[in-house]
Amino acid sequence: MDFVLPGEYVYRGMTCADVYAKNTSIDMMKEWTVRRSDVLIATPPKSGTTWMGEILRQMRAYHPESVGPDTSMLLSYVELNVPTPDTPTALEIQDQLISPRFIKTHLPYEFMKEAVEREGLKVVVVLREPKDTLTSYYYHYCNLFSFPGDFHQFFELVRQDRLLGGNIFKMSRDWWQARHLPNVLVVKYEELKKDAAHVVRRIGEFLEIPLDAEAVNKIVQQCDMNTMKKTLLSMNPGDPKLVKIAEKFFRKGIVGDWKNHMTQDEVDFVDECVRKYYDPVGLDFNV
To answer: Which of UniProt's keywords are assigned here (predicted)?
Structure first.
């Protein structure tokens, strides 16, 4: 099956499409003036980006530097920069945001390296077990790009290293290796599923946001998947676009769904990638 994304192209070894900025515009981080209170949420696709975004959005109310109105649940992405004459670029949108700014990305570490290492940009990284990531990504392809094939046909894109956003194994490895930087916190999706309150406390300490037990419990409750879906739909009740967005971003969110999709050969392929990319740097998802 020869599936091609709308406007598919390759930039710096990464598969891109019309939903991404064109060519060097993806490198907009070089033009972005980092504020001291900025926080970047960095994840491979389908690894808990929206979940972490909502956690930080809820934490914003407790941030000592928080001023102005609440932020939207649909946080801006660095790379989703598709301007029209009537639409501002992602950079322009981010420049207008009131501090503290929470911004998301699926871009590899190499695109963020300068902002992270030289500018001290704070980053919360979320990584997920790759079999579950790929399973969820298949449904994202179906919803976002009307992918016409089954999961096994989608998996051929994985083998060909043609997934939108690039190689998730390399991306996870590279962000994981940045965990020793004082301004980078790595969280695993499975940790969130197991003990969200513990993760919220870790994030609060990392961002120096004071959270008592009541605040932690409230944030965890507000970031339950069903609650997040209701929050999104309540932004404009009856809006079919929001219903579609909710379907894209809130599916099962469970651990281990890959067992219902992958053949043994596909499992073996992922396991070999894990041995190649994760094992040498000590990345695992045993929590």
So the answer is: Transferase
The CATH homologous superfamily to which domain 9-281 belongs is P-loop containing nucleotide triphosphate hydrolases (3.40.50.300)
pLDDT confidence of residue 87: 64
Q: Report how far residue 147's alpha carbon sits from residue 140's, in angstroms, rounded to the nearest whole number.
A: 9
| Sequence spans of domains, the chain | 9-281
Q: What is the pLDDT of residues 266-287, one digit of tens each?
A: 999 999 999 999 999 999 999 8
